[in-house]
Amino acid sequence: MNFEKLLKVHLSFFRTYMTYMLKNMTQSELKDFLDEKVELYNNPNFIESDPIQIPHLYSVKEDIEIAGFLAATIAWGNRKMIINNAKKMVDLMGNSPYDFVMNHSETQLEALENFVHRTFNGKDFVGFIKGLQHIYQNHSGLEAVFDKYQEEDSMQNSITEFKKIFFEIPHLTRTQKHVSDPSKNSSSKRINMWLRWNCRQDNKGVDLGIWKNISPSKLSCPLDVHSGNVARKLELLSRKQNDAKALAELDENLRKLDPKDPVKYDFALFGLGVFEGF
User: Fold this and answer.
1) Closest by Cα among 127, 144, 246, 241 to 178
2) pTM
């Protein structure tokens, strides 16, 4: 057996062993383990390989939240492609997202129509600009919408209400699929990730913490293939589908580990899955 095959066998054995050990941890031991992983991945080095770098380009609140919303919207697929295309989006907006949303011309909107990221195309992009303008002109901005509809222990209802408001104006039916809805049993991974960016502020330099009226205790972990698989191996999640019901189960278990800041464990679950192949 050559070295490469031997290494693969070793890693496979190691991961099986670690899975067994972690499953047999007490809740206190599991918390300590995950807290260590949060410390490992929740640092500025994380930014350079993550779409969160897009809102980090800006200093004005509205620019940050719009750039983040657009970057999060297309955050599926190859991470390098996501980042490159998110940069194209803000570049097409003259690198002034809020000014573009509020003051664009029809000619400037036409320039967006050649944009494409997987199934999100230029017409969807135009629809998003108009939806954002509607939010700022008629509903006091993005934070105000999520603040208004937040519940005592969850932001999922606010996501549903946000989608309703976002599409109050004339729009293409196809564009609706790019904004998820927890009431339709979606885990709303990308919007939950964006809410983490906006609402968490732990002075670690990653999350931006620009929204002050929403407590991190109400946030949900962005649930995707990586975080879901790791959560199942750690017995934080039993449901097989990555849907709204699974998110509710994961929320409940992460809140037991840290009721004030459960979504911080996104760093641990994601890091274990993507960077450590757990």
Assistant:
1) 127
2) 0.91
